[in-house]
Structure formats: structure tokens, C-alpha cells
Amino acid sequence: MRVLVTGSQGRIGRYVQAQLEEAGHSVVGFDVTAGDDIRNPAAVRAAAQGCDGIIHMAAMLADPKDDPNDVMHVNLQGLWHILTTAEALDIRRIVTFSSVNAMGIFIGESVPDFFPIDESHPCRPGRPYALSKYLGEEMCRLFTRRTAIATVCLRPPWVIHPDGYATVRQRWAANPEMEWTPIWEYGAFCDVRDIAAASVLGLTCPDPGHVRLLLCADDVMTSGPTSRELVAQIHPEVEWRGGVEYERDPFRALVDTSHAKAVLGWQPRYRWDMSS
Ligand SMILES: NC(=O)c1ccc[n+]([C@@H]2O[C@H](COP(=O)([O-])OP(=O)(O)OC[C@H]3O[C@@H](n4cnc5c(N)ncnc54)[C@H](O)[C@@H]3O)[C@@H](O)[C@H]2O)c1
């Protein structure tokens, strides 16, 4: 396939580009650092000519220093330009990066209604970045309904790079409170290599229509306590819906990725307990 990759110079984009090329696809990179602005519809249209699929990552992230108007402009109008370009050029598959933040229960926005978290969890984002990701998913849902162009919305948690595991362990060793202070993100993380693999599979899996898929490593990021011990210690008030699977694997992730595994045929390869 010939694939338009937006945000191709980013921390995730570089891995996505490399995995696409390894799999034999050709990549058209698109990034503002190379002069291509997602806010310019003509530039998006020109870059997408001849492409069979799009992986859309260009975005402004959850940096409190960013102007919320810019976050909305880049994240929502940028996605709109991707969707309208796909329709105009009859590109039938879009993989777009949403975030766990679409649910409004990460970055300290609110406490989950239940553990483990899955796609049935209600969404209540309030901050600009989180809201832009949720509204982007809704835009995709309605776009797919009208056009039948598939939109695969990926919801990664914190994406960790190969050198990130040691950095986290060093920080926790220096200050153990950092594991849950100021915010405990439910031990959720995913290796950038697994995230890139999920996005490539999103291009080629059987037509899923519109889907929103939580991505996460199979185990929790922890200094030692099991998943249930962490929940009991930090959020004892939250309803527990887990079953015997947490007896079989006490460090099992608190984000359920069975939907992504089924739709994409995806299996994360990197675990926290492999990194010590
Ligand atoms: N890193 C994470 O932990 C994480 C978690 C969940 C979701 N995501 C999502 O994954 C995607 C990629 O994130 P990342 O970690 O690689 O971020 P990043 O900031 O490293 O990469 C984003 C890329 O988008 C480009 N970009 C920004 N504005 C642009 C514009 N106007 N036009 C064209 N390109 C523009 C940037 O130059 C950058 O290269 C984003 O959509 C992000 O919201 C990331």
C-alpha cells in the first residue's frame, strides 16, 4: 500500500514509518516540521494523491502551555481535512490516533466508574486535548456512517520508548511516591513498537467500519504491588469487575484490550515485567 502518514516526524510517527517500510508499504510523510501543515486542506489533498490508506497522528498533545484554540484547530480541523481528503480521493481506510484521554478518566480528569476499564466506559472529557480526541472519534463515527469509509480510532495510554523503562525505574527509586503522585494512570502504558504495530494492522485488518480501540500492554507498570493491590490502595471506592483472570495473572493490565486484539489481530509484545 501507499500510505499517507501524518505526524511522521513525531515520537510515534518515526516507528510507524519504519514498520510500514519493513512490511513493504511505501510511505508519504507529512509533518509540520518538514513544512506540511495539517491545517492546510490543499496540502493534505496534494500529499494524499495516489494513497490507499492514511495513518493520522499529527496533533497537539496535552501540554498545559499550549493555547486551547490551537489544540482544537490542529486536532479537529486537521482530522476534518483527513476525512474530506479520503472521501474526495476514495481512500477507504483511515487509522487515526485518539487517546485514552477521550474517556476523561486520565490526566486526573476523573476517577473511573469501574476496573478493568474497557470501551464501554462512559466518556466525559473536559480538557481541550481530551475533548478534541473524543470529538474526533465522534466525527469519525458519523463520517463512516455516511461514507462507509473505515475509521479505526486507536486509544493509546502513555506510550513508552525502549529507553523509558529504565528512566521510570530510576525516578521511582529516587522518589517512590512518584508512582502515583500527582496522578496514578492505573499503571497503563504501551511500548511504542506495539503501538506502531497496531496502527499498521489497522490498515490491513478486515473492514471494521468505525471502531474505537483501547491499546495497552498486557501488564501494569508497578514497583511491586499487584493490580488488585494497587486498586485497593489508590482507588478502593471504584467498582471491581475483574474475574479469575486476575488470579491467573495478578499483574494483568487494568485496561482491557480484548477488542483491539479481536479486531486487529494484535498482540502487544512488550511487558513491564520484561524490562527489569
Ligand atoms: N505519546 C503518547 O503517550 C500518546 C498517547 C496517546 C495518544 N497519542 C497520540 O498519538 C499521536 C502521535 O503522538 P506523538 O507522541 O508521536 O506526539 P509528537 O508530538 O511526538 O508527534 C506529533 C507530530 O505531529 C506534528 N504536528 C503537530 N502539528 C502539526 C500540524 N499542524 N501539521 C502537521 N504536523 C503537525 C508534530 O510536528 C509531530 O511530529 C498524537 O495524535 C497523539 O495525540 C500519543
Number of helices: 9
The CATH class assignment is Alpha Beta
Q: In angstroms, what is the radius of gyration?
A: 18 Å
Distance between the termini: 38 Å
CATH architecture: 3-Layer(aba) Sandwich
Instruction: Provide the spatial order of strands within the biggest beta sheet.
Output: 2-1-3-4-6-9
Query: In percent terms, what proportion of residues is strand?
Result: 5-15%
Uncertain segments: none
CATH topology (fold) name: Rossmann fold
What overall form do the CA principal axes indicate? globular
Number of domains: 1
User: Bound compounds, please?
Assistant: nicotinamide-adenine-dinucleotide
Within CATH, the superfamily carries the name NAD(P)-binding Rossmann-like Domain
Q: What average pLDDT do the residues reach?
A: 97
Question: What is the structural class?
Answer: alpha/beta
Helical content (DSSP H or I, runs of 4+) = 25-40%
Question: Can you characterise this structure?
Answer:
With 276 residues, the chain is an alpha/beta fold. The chain has one domain: NAD(P)-binding Rossmann-like Domain (Rossmann fold, 3-Layer(aba) Sandwich). The protein has nine helices and ten strands. It has a six-stranded parallel β-sheet, with helices on both faces. Strands 5-10 form a two-stranded parallel ribbon. Helix 1 packs across helix 6. The protein binds nicotinamide-adenine-dinucleotide. The site of nicotinamide-adenine-dinucleotide (NAD) has 25 residues, from strand 7.
